[in-house]
Design a protein that fits this description.
There is one protein chain. By secondary structure, the chain is an alpha+beta fold. It has 29 helices and 23 strands. Strands 12-13-14-18-15-17-16 form a seven-stranded mixed β-sheet, with helices on both faces. A six-stranded mixed β-sheet has the order 1-2-6-3-5-4, with helices on both faces. Strands 7-11-8-10-9 form a five-stranded mixed β-sheet, with helices on both faces. A hairpin with a 4-residue loop joins strand 12 and strand 13. Helix 25 packs across helix 29. The chain is globular and about 80 Å long. The two termini are 55 Å apart.
Length: 944
Amino acid sequence: MKLSKLRLISGAVLLACACLAQAEIRLSDPLPLAPEVTVGKLPNGLTYYIKKNARPAQKVELRLVVKAGSILEDDDQQGLAHFTEHMAFNGSTHFKRNELISYLQSIGVKFGADLNAYTSFDETVYVLPIPTNKKENLEKGFLVLEDWAHGLKFNPADINSERGIVLEEARLGKGASDRMNKILYPKLLNGSRYAERMPIGKESVLKTFKPEAIKRFYKDWYRPDLMAVMVVGDVEPSQAEKLIRQHFGKLKNPAKPRPRLYADVPQRSQTEALVITDKEAPDDTVFIRYPIRVAQEPVTIADYRRQMIENLYGQMLSARMQELTQQANPPFIQGGSSMGKLVRGYESFSAYALLGKGGVQPAVDALVQEDERARRFGFSQDELDRARKNMLRNYERAYSERDKSDSAGFVAEYSRNFLEQEAVPGIANELLYAQELLPQVTLQEVNETVAKVIPDQQKKLVVFMGAEPKAGASVPTQQQLLDAVAQAERQKVEPRTERVLASKLMDGPPAGGSIVSEKLNSAIGVTELTLGNGVRVLLKPTDFKNDQVLMGSTRFGGQSLFGDADIYNARYASAVVGSMGLKDLAPLDLQKVLAGKTVNVGASLGELSEGFGGSASSADVEAMLQLVYLYFHDVRKDAGLYQSFIGKQQDLAKNSMAQPEAVFYDAIQHAMYGDNPRVDGVPRVADFDKVGLDRSLDIFRQRFSSARDMTFIFTGSFELDKIKPLIASYLGTLPVAEVPHAYRDVGMRPVTGVVKKDVYMGSEPKSTISITFNGDVAYSDEQKLTLQALGEVLNLKVIEVLREKMSMIYGGGFETSMGQHPYGHYSVALNLPTGPENVDKVIAAAFAEINKMKTDGPSAADLEKVKLNWITRQQKSLRENNYWMNQLMGSVTQGRDPAYLLRYEQRVRALTPQAVKLAAQRYLDMHNYVQVVLYPERKNVAAK
């Protein structure tokens, strides 16, 4: 299990697991395999993983993992590992072209969101979640996996049809990053074969390859000794193993298999510098890559202990780098140093910075000197204690949630075990190691490890990547980059000092709060409290997670209460306050005080409302409430951190309009709303000149100095009797002075009629079509649901016609929305990336599908696919705290009984093709839409 992905728990688990610590841990012992997973191998060499897991219920995650990726392609196959993945959905032994997607949609599996696959350098992974409410679903799911493993047809006509789709996917990846990476990767990978085998491949090959080339790749590399089948979910292991043997035992390896070799990454022979610029680059970065080494996955418990030490110093070094950004004039916008994976089997230490106005030298100075400070002087005991607390807390919570974790997380872990030999000892063993081994790790041991790991003037690659310089500006030369690093290495560094902080946020709970009424909505298990100060609280205790409590709050008002002249102060008020901290604690000081706790809280001032969002472990609910209390009583004013925030935002904004996508988004917003000053377009540097410290702080305090008419919501793993006294103390004593608690309709409305605009930006031959239908509506939940259904059935047609039949797009589709605040309104937005030469054809095809929907409505089969997918997803959502938080929040803003959500399935099943047809006629008004099309720069596209 990757330590960085672990989660957290209540301290009570320590007692529950105390018996584990009685076992003797011998560092020389090999890491065991988690007892809850069955791993086996068929006689033909195919590996399988099986785990019974009840979350989500009635669902199994199936995976076919193949140790075959782009690195194995011959010269005439570049891109065909990925193309093979596409062909898995285009005809096989048991499914004709498009039959597979249609069948899976008919059982509630959505293409893209559920059914998917990916290809990388060294692997191809097929993702198939299957509902198990019907026995035949699982059996057919295994048939799909078997076909993927050895039954693809590669019909020449289907290959030719798919070429356009793959080329459109390749087109999507074009841009500044792609152009710069093509220069970077050969140097970064020291001339390794990896740099010559990008998974998307070469367009010349994709356009012209013969079917024999892709069939040869499939025959050579899709073989059982390079495959794993994974079955995790609501299924009996014996049944899963039987199906694996039945479907995959018959697979055979080639008589003379090609050897599966892994590419080497050579060592760097000299220090080099590289300067890469592009006029569409969004930002400037500097990157230092130190010598590459062979990565060692843990095999023994001693190896695992070494990995824990690496994670400890990584956490501490990251905190130091983050602290550098909290200065009035920080050396970089963000930056860090760490040991990280490069490609399979290799890792290296590297340092990275997103550059601010100071440019290269201060960023390089900070990176090199902070690494050298850690290498020479190490870390402090306080830093180690905090990191150890946080890491142990992570293990504890992961253990607590072991029976409430989704199946998808387990199959991801097993995939890494198969592909990279990542150890899978199981969270019970990992918690045992953490409890026993972490306390034994000494500061001296950590600092000795850091001194060996952090490079000391070794051969390196120094890279600058950024925008082409504007008039009067410049970018560093290669020699200037090398000189900057050399200068930083020569400077003297001193040991770090750390100021002493308080050990807790508050001395204790405030007195005087009370609960004056309590009532239970038994239909949904929600308790409503009214506190003595009038604050309303909704409580939904659940057992969905063992150690997760979510908090939210809302009240109407928000930015709407402030005039146009104040819009930037209002828009960024909560971000400014968040950047400065609470009491006398800057944000990083708060993290230090809260070390070992799992808690976060943020305030938000939205367009029409304001409120809080937060989460905590069950044991840290009080800390979460304390943070809320301090937001009302003790927000912090810090001119230095304010200046740091503004400076970083301006640095981020300076090149934003160099990106075609940003210009396109901005054009859509202004085409729809004109020059209304409240349009939230792409941020400009000048926007932040309008954000003042005193005024933004004043606006925040106006809205967050009183909790009057605010509703708080809590969902998760808490006990009512324990949380209610905390709520009474912290929320019941919040100030409730009179404040406006209704939003103001500022009159911002989209244009009417047909508006068309073409935008010319970007050097690549790529276009994007945006068509938005807007209008007024008498809002109702039924109309909103019907509009959503309209968008979904149209998306089925987008896939079926524009992608699969015409091969003119890779992705894209319709999104719908409907709201009642500040007035009843709806939106249907269509977004379709394509080639400039195909824009008119794609628009015509999309409008043809819209007209068919208005004339004929959807087929009953298509609507049933949508309905089944929705019902399946809601059944899973009903066991998720986030879903309940969102639904309860919606019930507050819409003023309705939250028990309404229990009728969701009934409402979905009541949808009819006729209702969707009428919605198409009502909402897709061909006399009222905004169309914006992005084209390449005029010199790169023929005049229309």
